What we know:
Elements: H1 10-17, H2 23-26, H3 29-34, E1 36-38, E2 44-46, H4 54-66, H5 69-77, E3 105-106, E4 109-110, H6 111-131, E5 144-148, H7 155-163, E6 172-176, H8 181-188, E7 196-201, H9 208-222, E8 235-240, E9 253-257, H10 270-280, H11 282-298, H12 308-322, E10 327-333, H13 340-352, E11 370-373, H14 384-389, E12 396-403, E13 411-412, E14 415-416, H15 417-434, E15 451-458, H16 461-481, H17 493-503, H18 511-517
Helix pairs in contact: 1-4, 4-12, 5-16, 6-10, 7-10, 7-13, 10-11, 11-16, 12-16, 13-16
The chain binds 6-O-phosphono-beta-D-fructofuranose.
Residues 150-153, 202-204, 207, 210, 263-264, 350, 489, 492 line the site of 6-O-phosphono-beta-D-fructofuranose.
Enzyme class: isomerase
Pfam families: PGI
GO molecular function, one term: glucose-6-phosphate isomerase activity
Amino acid sequence: MNYTNLDQLESYKKLLGAEKKDLKKLLSKERVSSSSVKLGGDLKYNWASIPADDEIIRILQDLADEAELVEKYEEILRGKMMNPGEKRLVLHHLTRGNVLGEKVMYGEEDKEAFYSKEKAKIKDFSEKVHSGEIKGSTGKPFSTVCQIGIGGSDLGPRALYLALKGYERKMEAHFISNVDPDDAAEVIKSLDLERTLFILVSKSGTTQETLTNRDLVLAKLKETPIEGFVPNKHMVAVTSKTSPLASDKSLLASFFIDDFIGGRYSSTSAVGGVVLSLSYGYDTFSEILEGAHEEDVLSLNKDIKKNGALLDALLGVYLRNVLKYPATAILPYSQALSRFPAHLQQLDMESNGKHVNRFGKKVDYVTGPVIFGEPGTNGQHSFYQLLHQGTDIVPLQFIGFCNPQYGMDIITDGSFSQTKLNANLAAQIVAFALGKSDENPNKEFDGNRPSSLIYGSKLNAKNLGALLSHYENKVMFQGFVWNLNSFDQEGVQLGKVLAKKVLKGCEGDEVLKAYSDLLI
Ligand code: F6P
């Protein structure tokens, strides 16, 4: 059904009126073992510690049906224009496989064929770099890659690269994103420029930070006093065919995405594909795609108890709109996922941090929560104090794995480090849910603090792809419920315009002057 406001939905009204549940009473051994849904790879999503009983789950199922959430996902997959603000299709799922098995055409163009061709190019290029067939301009093989990009052209690819660092690498990867010159300086000083391949990534080809860093890197490369050194032959581009970068034939190679892949959804396109294939090999990138595709297929199930992304999305809506919790913390008990919360910040907040619905009307309900996070157990020694005893309740999303990546571990005090890590994870879930009474209020834990858990055997490429897609699809389903266009980002424009306006005549250290100049 088409609706403009949530309260037009009978199921939503029912959800608002449903009796709130006490997590302390709800949580049981039986509930823990019966509350998991299979995700892609060997991941599972467990919602035992969310205060939703059978009645709430039934209403959420009604909400999914009434709001036609899976049907809307199918429309995306069929190539309907689901980003009306920018008049664009939303095709990131197609970069990892055809979920419905139907052709997706844009005019005369077969979109699946376009993405397959780009993947074949990435495979061929990365294999030639690894074999030494493609070398640096002075004849030395490339040993290092360095991605220049920001936002979606940085966060997802960087998070995925770091997530697999426990596995064998073919090339080391570095990333330059911030226009702060110290970011580039710090990275460049560690590079052997003769052996470094730069990947310039910008879908639009107009992003100030990325173009500035490109110029800085090229200027540095031009200073290289080695005979025969050709800076542009140490750089490839990943961009859209319509971007100003697309026509630069002087670069070593160009790879293409198109406007139908949103920046924050682009990790499985050439935006992530080139750097991940160069650093880990194309086969590893393929495994990421396989895990993501598996999860995309599971996300088609209309039964919310069999569709982890949909269930996670709906429980999130319950926590946000009914229980009114303002934030969500992402807490991976895996150091390798250190930048994953940063990626999810963009994915979630740039998609659903909106107050106008897809019909251009202001909404009268709350939308996307604030997202933040850090790996455990480090976070426990930082912000968990507020999570346990602060005045706001923050729903938590834990992520954990049975085995470490490196296989290097030690028994001290009777247990492996990995066992200690997971014991902490389990302890936190229970501490948040059940709390502890104490005569001293300062030592009392109220409990009733909800959390969910995604867990699997190991953080490998396939599970990583499934994890990535789980969150992409969760955010997409939530955007459908809230009736938002989750695929544009008008809210980032004003700052960019003002920065450009004040840039002329402003010296680097004159922040206060620029600030007041804008107020005239
Ligand atoms: O500033 C917002 C944004 O448009 C993001 O959505 C995007 O991921 C990022 O900038 C980078 O864009 P581009 O790949 O076009 O350089």
